[in-house]
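Fill in residues.
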């Protein structure tokens, strides 16, 4: 599955996958073959940051 380009859709899809399928951002990136730094940069540009404690972006 390709991740959406739209930041709000990306935020929604990534958080859904973190909640339902992956125990961490690292696991999501490995499982989906996604560059973690690029993903975090895209979401940071929209005002979101990852919380390892809650395993979600906010």
């Amino acid at each position: 599955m390709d991740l959406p380009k739209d930041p709000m859709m990306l935020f929604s899809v990534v958080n859904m996958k973190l909640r339902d399928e992956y125990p961490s951002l690292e696991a999501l990136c490995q499982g989906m073959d996604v560059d973690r730094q690029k993903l975090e940069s895209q979401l940071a540009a929209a005002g979101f940051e990852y919380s390892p404690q809650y395993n979600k972006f906010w």
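Residues 7-20 form the longest helix (14 residues).
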